[in-house]
Amino acid sequence: MKKAIARALIFTAIFCSYAPVAWCQAEIFSNSTLDQAKQQAQKEKKLLLVDFTASWCPPCRKMESTTWSNTDVQAWVKENAVAIQVDVDKDEKTSSALNVEAMPTLVLFTPESTGEFGRQVGFMGPSELLQWLDSAKSGKKADSSEPAEESDIWSRISKARELQAAAKNAEALEEYVWLWNNTSTSDSTLRDVRTGMLPVEIEKLSAVYAPAKTKFTELRDAAENSEKRGDWIILNGVLGDGPRTLAWFDKIKADAKQKDTLKKNAALLEPILYSHSRWADLATYMFADPITKVNEIYKRAKDMTKPRPDTEFAKDFDPFPSMVLLLYGSYIGANRDGEAQKIADECLRLDNTQTMRESLASMAKGMQQARAPHKSVQKQ
User: How far apart are the first and last CA of the chain?
Assistant: First the structure.
């Protein structure tokens, strides 16, 4: 579900000022593929600059008419870098591989490594871009145009993946521990990295390298001792210890004093409960007021689609259907069909689209099949 939402975020683009409905690529961009451009950059010992774009996007259009047409930018790129543009509509594989989720996104590689050096998301003017590129050429991973932490995070993620792929597990572990301890959750993008992407990578390493499992077990226990319940829940998942989370949930779920704790960690708990077929618990404790919850989700979904000054989302981007399905499915799984119908009615009142209708129907069918074995067990 999360990947589907992320993929929907990347559809944006560039228009030429003199041809508003046609694609026009600046002269500094090569027609090479990413692999070809990497080989050329390494051979010529230059930076590789990748501009992710598409066929329509106001911020990208602005960069086309200002930044990419700037003579200083063009001169710098021609002398110091190999540059390509990736149309995310035509090359979803490359966009997905580099975790591109919003437009425009610039990704930079150095000739010494196949991993990315840094990235910028959003519109950049000529002076900002040149400052960033000059910093990269001098070997600096941070500059005044981007928070140092975000730049370093993406660089270290690439480095950790490279190390793991090369079976340099001890070094990869050092990188992942640093990332776990230093990735901020105050920024929405980095928060998604820490709660989504990073745990997946850590889990892969822990499965093949025992010291990684030992280290993150220590971090999990430390999180519990310091009452960092969210970190504790995430690391339980990394360590394959979902039952530990469920046992804690069972102890506190009916305690009114723990209501705020459950609410604070709802986003982490809900998928765990759902995956363990704890539909009744979801309906009773997490979604006790489903109609209000549906409206809260709808508001969040609408906020996600609002235009931003430096990035653009697809005009038909509608995350609401996918965001509400876990709530709807939980009520069907819990055999509370009457309330589930009211939830569906409210969803259609807010978003009466073909996508919503199909999503609800598919979820209802799947959950009715999933709950059948549980009904049989209960009767026995």
Answer: 34
Sign, CA torsion 290/296/299/300: negative
- Name the strand (E) or helix (H) holding 52: strand 47-53
Find the helix packing angle between 266-275 and 242-252, rounded to 10°. 110
What residues have CB less than 8 Å from 307, skipping those under 6 apart?
313
Range of the domain at 15: 1-146
Over 194-255, what HEC string results? Answer: HHHHHHHHHHHHHHHCHHHHHHHHHHHHHHHHCCCHHHHHHHHHHCCCHHHHHHHHHHHCCC
- pLDDT, tens digit, for every residue of 90-123? 788 888 888 777 778 899 888 776 567 778 878 8
Q: Quickly tell me which residue has 């506190």 as its tokens.
A: 252
Those residues with Cβ within 8 angstroms of residue 319's Cβ, 6 or more apart along the chain or in another chain: 5, 8, 301, 304, 305
Contact 365, 337 (CB under 8 A): no
Cα dihedral sign for 352, 357, 363, 365? positive
Which residues in the chain show pLDDT less than 70?
1-26, 55-57, 113-115, 139-151, 187, 307-316, 374-380
pLDDT of residue 367: 96
> Does pTM top 0.70 for this prediction?
no
Q: Report if residue 73 sits inside a domain.
A: yes
Domain count of the fold of the chain:
1
Q: How far apart are CA 150 and CA 114, in angstroms?
A: 19
Residue 227 lies in a domain: no
Has residue 230 been placed in a domain? no
Residue 57 falls in the annotated catalytic set: yes
Residue 318, both tokens: 């509608």
Spatial CA neighbour of 358 closest among 347, 368, 369: 347
What CATH number did the domain enclosing 137 receive? 3.40.30.10
Region for 45 from its dihedrals, namely left if φ exceeds 0, alpha if ψ lies in -120 to 50, beta otherwise:
left
Residue tagged active-site, from 16, 24, 57, 347: 57
Rounded to the nearest 10°, the torsion over CA 79, 84, 85, 87 is 180
Q: How far apart are CA 223 and CA 199, in angstroms?
A: 15
Please indicate, yes or no, if residue 186 is contained in any of the structural domains.
no
Among residues 16, 24, 60, 347, the one annotated as catalytic is 60
